[in-house]
Fold:
Amino acid sequence: MPIKTIDPATVRNWIENDEAVLVDVREPSEHQSHNIPCATLVPLAEVCKGRLPQYHGKKLVMHCQGGRRSMTACERLLQEDPELEVYNLEGGIAAWAQVCGR
Structure:
């Protein structure tokens, strides 16, 4: 499956409706200083299906600061499982902060 890019407002709606799991692929220090409260931290170096939070039946959305590292995470996950449906948060946490606040 191709990687899908998704906007922050849509992700927020999915989360509010318990339809998505959000994964932060930044480093622990970045996550500690500023994060999306519902996001689970899995640093990019550790990204694999076995390290992901429970997502079955939900959309899997990856995010970082601006979108590059999360795109890499999506690519890694698709190499591991080409049938995985994974989304990249467009603009990362920076775009989330502009659209959704903290």
Summary: The chain has a mean pLDDT of 94. Residues 54 and 74 are 16 Å apart (CA to CA).
